[in-house]
């Protein structure tokens, strides 16, 4: 057996109440806590970003296709539904679904209050399963085969403001020439936590929007395109731009809500700074642990030098001890980090204020590749750092080391 490994194992098996044993436990604990915090931080970051993005996608899709116009109002320029792109979008493998919708501004009036709203008209092709994550009460609207459906889904914010509950009938006033009014029934209530949507949008039948705008049944305001993978956003936008008519434009969701995506990018930078500080603290703790170990083992170092061991062999003893501490810390860190993450993932014990954070609980998402990289980076970085204090071995003189008393 290798001499350095043998002595390292003997040192580890030594049951001592010395100060070194306490310091070693602190070293293991610092690595374990640091890695656990990093795992939980990344799980929360990924979960939070994914939760916000999913809410945006469920309401606005990944890409919107509309007519090129200088109009900046909520009144959309009509475009045909059955275009060549709409009929053949399945030929683009990155696209999961395309739906035709239309927006129209109006006033929603209950028996007591009045509020400006935008009705988002949807058809039978609407992706209700994606939107269902926002539903808190009721059901989706049912479509009528002969005329438009008089059912709508409103936000909790609008329902609270206008004192509306499920099954209530309310009036929608469309400000146009001549003004029109329609009675609708509330069959569902949603909540996203995103103020821009919750305070403005209700969901109704696209046929109602078509009738109010005097459009035919083959007309909509824009397409909403859902992708299989958000990472394909830029490439797919270019493909869609090449396939749609020349008087249409494709707009990415990152361009529709730049402030939100800039904010999410800023979260990445903040978490990286925190993780760097955690790793620095763990590295300094390990350096301190090894220095204490070498101070207590100074007579042993002197004896080994007197017997002919070179500095490399002696340094290897303490590096192997440090590696053992690191691996123990990694094991407990994964156990704590993944364990706490699983508890929150399944039981959602830690709540959040949705008005400030857009989500009602701390979200957790697992990126196992990131966790593996965190483990590898922690091991390699701390292992590289702990070679520094072992350089003190080469500075020790045999006579002085043998005379050293603990």
Give an account of the 3D structure.
By secondary structure, this protein is of the alpha+beta class. The chain has two domains: 3-55 and 261-403, no CATH class; 69-246, no CATH class. 51% of the residues lie in helices and 18% in strands. The protein has 15 helices and twelve strands. The chain has helices at residues 3-13, 19-60, 84-88, 128-131, 156-162, 195-198, 206-213, 233-243, 253-256, 258-296, 298-306, 311-347, 354-357, 368-385, 398-403; strands at residues 63-67, 79-80, 95-109, 114-122, 135-138, 151-155, 169-174, 180-190, 201-205, 219-220, 222-227, 248-252. It is elongated. The model has no long low-confidence stretch (mean pLDDT 86).
Q: Characterize the biggest β-sheet.
A: 10 strands, mixed
* Mean pLDDT across residues: 86
User: What is the subunit arrangement here?
Assistant: single chain
Helix proportion:
40-55%
Number of discrete helical segments: 15
Gyration radius, rounded: 32 Å
Q: How would you describe the shape?
A: elongated
Q: How many structural domains does the protein architecture include?
A: 2
**Unreliably modeled segments:** none
Percentage of residues in DSSP E strands: 15-25%
Which structural class best describes the helix and strand composition?
A: alpha+beta
Terminal Cα span: 29 Å
Give me the count of strands.
Answer: 12
Membrane topology: Multi-pass membrane protein
Pfam family, one: FtsX
InterPro entries: ABC3_permease_C, Lipoprotein-release_system, MacB_PCD
Protein name: ABC transporter permease
């Amino acid at each position: 057996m290798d001499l350095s490994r043998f002595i390292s194992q003997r040192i580890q098996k030594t049951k001592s109440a010395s100060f070194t044993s306490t310091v070693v436990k602190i070293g293991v604990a610092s690595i374990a806590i640091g890695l656990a915090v990093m795992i939980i931080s990344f799980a929360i970051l990924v979960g939070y970003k994914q939760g916000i993005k999913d809410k945006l996608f469920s309401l606005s899709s990944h890409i919107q296709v509309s007519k090129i116009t200088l109009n900046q109002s909520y009144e959309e320029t009509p475009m045909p539904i059955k275009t060549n792109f709409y009929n053949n979008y399945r030929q683009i493998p990155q696209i999961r679904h395309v739906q035709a919708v239309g927006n129209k501004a109006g006033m929603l009036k209950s028996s007591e209050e009045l509020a400006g709203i935008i009705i988002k008209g949807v058809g039978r092709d609407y992706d209700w399963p994606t939107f269902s994550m926002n539903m808190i009460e009721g059901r989706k609207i049912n479509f009528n085969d002969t005329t438009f459906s008089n059912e709508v889904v409103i936000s909790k914010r609008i329902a609270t403001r206008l004192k509306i509950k499920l099954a209530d009938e309310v009036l929608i006033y469309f400000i146009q020439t001549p003004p029109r009014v329609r009675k609708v029934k509330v069959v569902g209530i949603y909540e996203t936590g995103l103020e821009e949507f919750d305070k403005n949008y209700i969901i109704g039948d696209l046929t109602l929007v078509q009738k109010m705008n005097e459009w035919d049944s083959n007309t909509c305001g824009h397409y909403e395109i859902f992708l299989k993978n958000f990472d394909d956003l830029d490439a797919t936008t270019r493909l869609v731009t090449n396939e749609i008519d020349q008087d249409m434009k494709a707009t990415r969701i990152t361009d529709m809500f730049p402030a939100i995506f800039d904010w999410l990018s800023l979260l990445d930078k903040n978490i990286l700074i925190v993780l760097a500080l955690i790793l620095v603290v763990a590295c300094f703790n390990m350096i301190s642990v090894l220095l204490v170990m070498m101070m207590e083992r100074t007579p042993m170092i002197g004896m080994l030098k007197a017997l002919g061991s070179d500095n490399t062999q002696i340094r290897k003893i303490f590096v192997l001890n440090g590696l053992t501490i690191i691996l123990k810390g990694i094991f407990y860190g994964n156990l704590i980090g993944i364990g706490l993450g699983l508890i929150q993932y399944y039981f959602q014990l830690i709540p959040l204020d949705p008005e400030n954070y857009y989500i009602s609980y701390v979200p957790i998402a697992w990126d196992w590749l990131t966790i593996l990289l965190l483990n590898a980076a922690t091991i390699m970085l701390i292992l590289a750092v702990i070679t520094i204090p072992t350089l003190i071995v080469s500075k020790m003189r045999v006579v002085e080391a043998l005379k050293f008393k603990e």
